[in-house]
From TrEMBL:
It comes from the Bacteria. Homodimer. The dihydroxyacetone kinase complex is composed of a homodimer of DhaM, a homodimer of DhaK and the subunit DhaL. It comes from Geodermatophilus telluris. Coiled coil: none annotated. It is found in: Cytoplasm. Belongs to the PEP-utilizing enzyme family. General (non sugar-specific) component of the phosphoenolpyruvate-dependent sugar phosphotransferase system (sugar PTS). This major carbohydrate active-transport system catalyzes the phosphorylation of incoming sugar substrates concomitantly with their translocation across the cell membrane. The phosphoryl group from phosphoenolpyruvate (PEP) is transferred to the phosphoryl carrier protein HPr by enzyme I. Phospho-HPr then transfers it to the PTS EIIA domain. The lineage of its organism: Bacteria, Bacillati, Actinomycetota, Actinomycetes, Geodermatophilales. This is Phosphocarrier protein HPr.
């Protein structure tokens, strides 16, 4: 019974009309990666590497990082793993890397902005990613990108990190779509990326100017606001056929939100390991034509509450 459930979970998720939607997992450790594999995830859509870097006196070496990334690849047994470079800011202090206090950490030097101030540390991480990529399918994800120059700078460091060899041919390079400017100007990024991974947690806070986790703004900071959905849809439609587009924010784990994401053209979701089976089950209920129609209505809605009402009305057992 348990073995049968596991096999069922690991089956690919196809919509009723036969379109594949991959459902991968967001993980922060090798233990998470094993849990993801056990729940039938199609891969790791987001490896948050922060855990490796926090609470220690010196940064992890390339060898330590390579070992961790390879262990995650091993846990997923040949399925793809998206490794995100260090995503911290002034709000997460590192003992070996003192940073000036930020008055406004979410609008400050964080993610790739911070990484590019210490190219030595970023190059070490990229070297570990290159080494891991020789052992399995790896995507590199760059967090908090705002402008194309940041992608070009990371690509230059990636080439240096791979030296004396070339960057592994199978290594895909992607950016996180977390800043509205990227979604609005996605054409500028497409020549330089293989993957766009939409981080709706940050994209929502920057679109609605409502800090993540702010206790008074939870209702305002709704990833199903039509303005956020429009940015997701623009990204997916402009990237179609040119880059893979995935959604890895919390909203992807909400079965009620899956139809609108699929309707906007998203074919890759990445969710907490515990949500993989439920999201696959939701995908199997869907018809992509009906989802596209639903998405059109959601984009025309006035506010997140109306979107949520539309999604409830469209739900299979409503
Ligand atoms: C996001 O911003 O949606 C995301 C997936 O990244 P994190 O939650 O780690 O900021
Ligand atoms: Mg983020």
């Amino acid at each position: 019974r348990h073995a049968r459930d596991t096999a069922e979970a690991a089956r690919e998720a196809l919509t009723r009309d036969g379109r594949r939607v991959t459902v991968s997992a967001n993980v922060g450790s090798v233990a998470d990666a094993r849990a993801a594999a056990a729940t039938g995830a199609d891969g790791v859509g987001l490896l948050r590497t922060e855990v490796l870097f926090l609470d220690r006196d010196r940064p992890p070496t390339a060898e330590e990082q390579e070992q961790e990334y390879r262990a995650v690849l091993d846990a997923l047994a040949g399925r793809p793993v998206a490794i995100r470079t260090l995503d911290v800011g002034g709000d997460k202090p590192l003992r070996y890397w003192p940073q000036p206090a930020e008055t406004d950490p979410f609008l400050g030097v964080r993610g790739v902005r911070l990484s590019l101030t210490r190219p030595d540390l970023l190059r070490t991480q990229l070297a570990a990613v290159c080494r891991a990529a020789r052992h399995g399918p790896v995507r590199l994800l760059v967090p908090m990108v705002t402008v194309v120059e940041e992608v070009l700078a990371v690509r230059r460091l990636l080439a240096e990190a791979a030296a004396p060899g070339p960057v592994p041919a199978g290594l895909q390079v992607g950016v996180m779509v977390e800043v509205p400017a990227v979604a609005l100007d996605v054409e500028a990024f497409l020549p330089h990326v293989d993957v766009l991974s939409i981080g709706t947690n940050d994209l929502t806070q920057y679109t609605l100017a409502a800090a993540r986790g702010h206790p008074a703004l939870a209702a305002l900071a709704d990833p199903l606001h039509p303005a956020v959905l429009r940015l997701v849809g623009e990204t997916a439609s402009r990237a179609a056929g040119r880059a893979a587009v995935s959604v890895c924010g919390e909203v992807a784990a909400d079965p009620a939100a899956v139809p609108v994401l699929v309707g906007l053209g998203v074919r890759e979701l990445s969710v907490a390991p515990s949500a993989v089976a439920g999201v696959k089950a939701a995908v199997r209920q869907l018809d992509t034509g009906a989802c596209a129609e639903l998405a059109r209505r959601c984009l025309a809605a006035t506010g997140a509450a109306e979107v949520r009402a539309l999604l409830r009305a469209a739900a299979p057992d409503a």
